[in-house]
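Let us practice reading a record.
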Amino acid sequence: MLIDWVGFSTETERLSKTTTVTFLVQFFNTAFLLLLVGANLSEQPVTFWLDGGQFSDFNSMWFRSIGNTLIGTMYFNAWFPILEALMYLGLRFLFRLMDKGCSCDKYKTKKTSIQAYLDVYTGPVYLMHYKYSTLLNVVFVTFMYGLGMPILFPIACLSMVILYF
């Protein structure tokens, strides 16, 4: 990872930069890339080589194609933490079942060290800096496109509630 390669003097500084870089990449992919894909700036003084798209402005066609994609992405991002938690819960259950050898005895284990046992029976590390960057992305995308697509505000509220719990 680029952040680890740069090297920081404290862990807090590294996590802060990881949050910032992750947010910027998510925001670019979610908000700006969709905007640039369909952009037609041929009528502008500086086109930035964006003159092949079909949308020169935010109109009803833009909201039907790009807007629907954005809403779908935000809706998926709202529900993804639940999907991720269920996936990790299933993996933990599978690893514990493999350790017990499909036995119902709760004290049976194949692990020979305390650390190996803890690795299987404790939960994963909660990577809060990725959750912060997701929360920032939800807020920024919602405020960027929310006036044109008001459905983003309830989706953002749902996303924040899910991330809170």
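A brief commentary: The two ends are 29 Å apart (CA to CA).
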